[in-house]
Amino acid sequence: MKHKFLVLFCMSILGIQTSFAQNSRTTYNFNSGWKLYVGDIKDAELPTFNDQEWKAITLPYAWNEDEAFKKSIEDLSTGIAWYRKRFILPAGASAKKIFLEFEGVRQAGEFYLNGKFIGRHENGITSFGFDISSLIIPDKENILAVRIDNSWTYREKERNSPYQWNDKNFNANYGGISKNVRLHITGKIYQTLPLYSSLKTTGNNIYAKNFNFNNKSATVVSSSEVKNETSESQNITYEVEIKDADGKIVKTFSTAAQTLAANKTATFTAESLVSGLNFWSWGYGYLYTVTSRLKVNNNTVDELITKTGFRKTEFKNGMVYLNDRVLMMKGYAQRTSNEWPAVGLSVPAWLSDYSNQLMVESNANLVRWMHITPWKQDIESCDRVGLIQAMPAGDSEKDVTGTRWDQRKEVMTDAIVYNRNNPSIFFYECGNESISAEHMVEMKAIRDKFDPNGGRAIGSREMLDIAAAEYGGEMLYINKSADKPLWSMEYSRDEALRKYWDEFSPPYHINGAGPKYKDADASDYNRNQDSQAIEDVIRWNEYYQERPGTGTRVSSGGVNIIFSDSNTHHRGEENYRRSGEVDAMRIPKDGFYAHKVMWDGWVDAKKTGIHIVGHWNYKAGTKKNVYVIATGDKTELFINGKSQGFGEKSNGFLYTFKGINYQSGLLKAISYDNKGSKLAEAQIKTSGTPAGIKLTKILNPTGFKADGADLALIQVEVVDAAGNRCPIALNTINFNLTGPAEWRGGIAQGPDNYILSKQLPVENGVNRFLVRSTTTAGKINITAKAEGLKSASMALETLPVQVKNGLSTQFPADGLKSNLKRGATPIEQTYQVSRKAVKIVGASAGANNDKAKLSYDDNELSDWVNDGKVETAWIKYDLEKESTITQVELKLNGFRTKIYPLRILVDGTEVFKGNSKNSLGYFTAICKPTKGKTVTIQLISSGQEIANANSGVEVNGKRLDDGIERAETKLKGGLSIIETEIYENP
Q1: Which residue intervals of 310-436 are DSSP H helices?
Q2: Cis peptide before 60, with omega less than 30 degrees from 0?
């Protein structure tokens, strides 16, 4: 028996070693078993250094995570921290290639392996890696030590330059190794890693072309940079295998054998037509597993697995096309930190999915990450949930030159190479402010070199008249184009605390109440939920009015800043930004539902959206406006079955029911079409007296892992006897936690924002908190108590995670499924044509006649202006053909702050007389339908500045964009037009 056991044991060991030898690429999760010391300490890089008393952690882990949302961004702690890790590689690994891959550190790291300096990474954004093959101690413990410096003023060592994006306004400073780490072991014939700056390698590139949507086919191309580090030439076959989401092989194809000389590098490419494809789309994150293999003598010597999706994009006619269908961009400008209280950005992959999928559930299709490239985990998460990304490189808010511009190009290169296989990335953003034409050309050349076939537009904020830019758009205003798509990079900065329903609900926050910001009125940054939701409707409706289908020149949409409350630049009363449509724990505000109603459709809004703003628990005798957001043509309100009449419609989607007397019971809203047919219904009801506490767990769908990094998100509610949430409850809940877990807590208004406190108030009857696992599996018990309420308890259990010698083959994203809820790209057209532009072929004017054409040249940085006299304040347009004119749309200089009294004539017949309106860009004059071949626009009398002198000024005193500055418009008869568009019915 002993002999038999010994044979079996030896065979099993031999089997493991053989398997390791044959499987020439093994990738390990390198997150486990780290030690942390905050501060600088001598000799910490040495193998003999005693780190026994250091804090045991699992990556990703920011050493100052406790301060996230406790401190304002500029007060987050900086300094030196050391991270150390011990690991032993499997037998035989020392004869192979060994690489470390870091998804990023903040800000700069110096790396030592077994006491030897192996390199430095300093930009605080991008991924990087090290070839450590020659430094590994075979079959013994190896020690990696990392010294991290997250100073706000850090300067790159070699060029003695700061980094433009290391900025206290927007780039929350979660210091240390705050992202994932992997270790790769390959043979000496291998496909490289996509780590350009550090390893000078480009990895694998997969894309599709020759799409046929009727046949569900495309040509799939896979290309890998291959190195032969053996001493002999090798005949290598490159094979590609594609598996669908169910693991079924749909295609295998390969190249003929090619010779690669010893110690040389070459690119291997294979392509094939693949049928039966499911195409990646908005809210349909269909991903394939693509395995690229290197074979020598029919034996696999390297195998690389990539998750990716296939989709077609086009950027033309002022619109974005996805899989041959027009998609109006709508979503959020989200801080790249995408952080959570007392954790920062370092959350498990499933929680990235949870947060990012909430954007999709609000019917957003785009997230514009702000200023710096997001970490790989968020990028891959967007692939799964079906959320389009605009990927920046690194910048602040202006163009730069010299070393700082070189740094920006380097980061863009690294980001493109590392992320070009992620189908959700549609846009490469070169700057959060316009850059020069020369710089745009340089950035475009980088895209063309490293990702010429990925179907990504490259551009920057603004870039309205720079030909090399393939998309652009202002920050706060509407731009339109008949050429490249223009979408607003951030169109709403207003802030509202989730705790503030309205002025009639505890704590009775009057809209706008709060301190000044830099001695200026900050009302817009101290809104309540009613006001924020209404403002969301007002802002979006202006973009919606200029959507695809409304003419030749259209807006391609915009993104609202931000999605979740952020530990970054704030203007309101709290020390963090509350512009989010969800709070920092991802609990929705009413603005979330406003967007869900308005954004449900590729372009045109579906008619079935409806939401009642607020709650229905007030004091007897309360009289207030009730607001309903709906996409129908009219909306009726009912209280306990009795009609309160139809709401006053405004801003496209908002229905106001004025002076409604509160009555306890059921509040219901029904929307109808113009024929009176019911389209949608929503209702809310009065809850009873607070009676108890309810706990609900939101967990990793693959199980709560005992890896020391997984998190459980727990929702706590105050409920009545029937279990209904009490929406005006503000009770303080006391929590107790036992078992192998760490309390990370939540956030609420109060001392230190209650960060890490086990005492947490509910706000509007609800709150959430986080619990982190330890490396010990077991049962966890949570109890919640509050005075006067029935207590609640919850049991959780963590699952063991296998880690051996500091290495694991379990990864944070393992088992996470794609979101396919929205279904594939629509077969039918995604918008209806509501008006048709009439082409202007010439123009004459009362002054500056030679500049008249600038008022219809599809360039919003050029304009026509008269000489400031009323008698010359006219312009006449010649049309391509006689048409029945129904609308004239103007982008006037001073569109935000000036009102012009205008008269419009068609072939001399007056069709409109009235004042222009202030807007985010465009004013539409509805004309008496009149046939003609000329349209004349006249200024009747002096234009008027609007009464509020601060309406065109930010709270920091900076003047907001308001068109093109013209001295003539300050004169009595000044008229200046940036763009004129003339329409007829379709």
Answers
A1: 349-361, 376-385, 402-419
A2: yes
CA–CA distance, 610 with 935 (Å, rounded to integer) = 40
Which is it for the CA torsion 686, 688, 690, 692, positive or negative?
negative
463 in helix, strand or coil?
A: coil
Q: What are phi and psi of 39, to 5 degrees?
A: 130, 165
3-state SS class at 131: strand
Return d(Cα 658, Cα 644) in angstroms, integer.
10
* Lateral strand order in the sheet of 766-773: 741-745, 766-773, 711-719, 692-698, 789-797, 779-786, 732-738, 759-761
CA atoms within 13 A on the CB side of 650: 10
CB 359 within 8 A of CB 595: no
Rounded CA separation 923/904 (Å): 13
Single-letter amino acid, residue 58: T
Q: How far is 414 from 197, CA to CA, in rounded Å? A: 6
Please provide the distance, in angstroms rounded to a whole number, between the alpha carbons at the two ends of the chain.
89
**pLDDT for the residue numbered 977:** 98
- Phi-psi category of residue 392: left, alpha or beta, with phi > 0 → left and psi -120 to 50 → alpha: beta
Q: How far apart are CA 167 and CA 374, in angstroms?
A: 16
Helix axis angle, 529-544 relative to 590-598, nearest 10°?
20
Choosing from 490, 495, 535, 889, the catalytic residue is: 490
Chain centroid to Cα 462, Å, comes to 19
Adjacency order of strands within the sheet including 425-429: 457-459, 425-429, 388-392, 366-370, 329-335, 557-561
Beta bridge partners of 369: 334
Taking CA atoms, 334 is separated from 394, 580, 748, 834, in Å, by 15, 9, 21, 32
Q: Name the helix (H) or strand (E) containing 734.
A: strand 732-738
Contact 323, 555 (CB under 8 A): no
- DSSP of 789-852, one letter per residue? EEEEEEEEEPEE---BTTBBS--TTTTPPPP-TT-SPPSS-S-----EEPPEEEEEESS-GGGG
pLDDT at residue 960, as a whole number = 78
Token readout for 175 is 């210091």
| Beta strands 366-370 and 329-335, pairing class | parallel
> How many beta carbons lie within 10 A of that of residue 5, not counting itself?
9
Q: What is the pLDDT of residue 787?
A: 97
- Catalytic, 490? Answer yes
Q: What is the mean pLDDT of each run of 10 residues along the chain (986 residues)?
A: 39 37 81 98 98 98 98 97 98 94 98 98 98 96 98 97 95 97 98 98 98 97 98 97 98 97 98 98 98 97 98 98 98 97 98 98 98 98 98 95 98 98 98 96 98 98 95 95 97 94 96 88 93 97 98 98 95 94 98 98 97 98 98 98 98 98 98 97 98 98 98 98 98 98 98 98 98 98 98 98 97 98 97 98 98 98 96 98 98 94 98 96 98 97 59 59 88 95 97
Backbone angles phi, psi at 62, to 5 degrees: -90, 130
Residue 23: per-residue pLDDT: 54
Given phi > 0 = left and psi -120 to 50 = alpha, else beta, which region is 145? beta
Tokens in use for 703?
Answer: 């199980």
Structure token digits, residue 862: 């050029």
**Burial of 953 from C-beta contacts in 10 A (0-12 / 13-18 / 19+):** middle
Q: Which residue has the tokens 């669908």?
A: 244
Question: With the CA atoms of 164, 167, 172 and 176 taken in that order, what torsion angle do they form, in degrees rounded to the nearest 10?
Answer: 60
Helix axes 349-361, 376-385, angle to 10 degrees: 50
Coil, strand or helix at 699: coil
At 465 the three-state DSSP class reads: coil
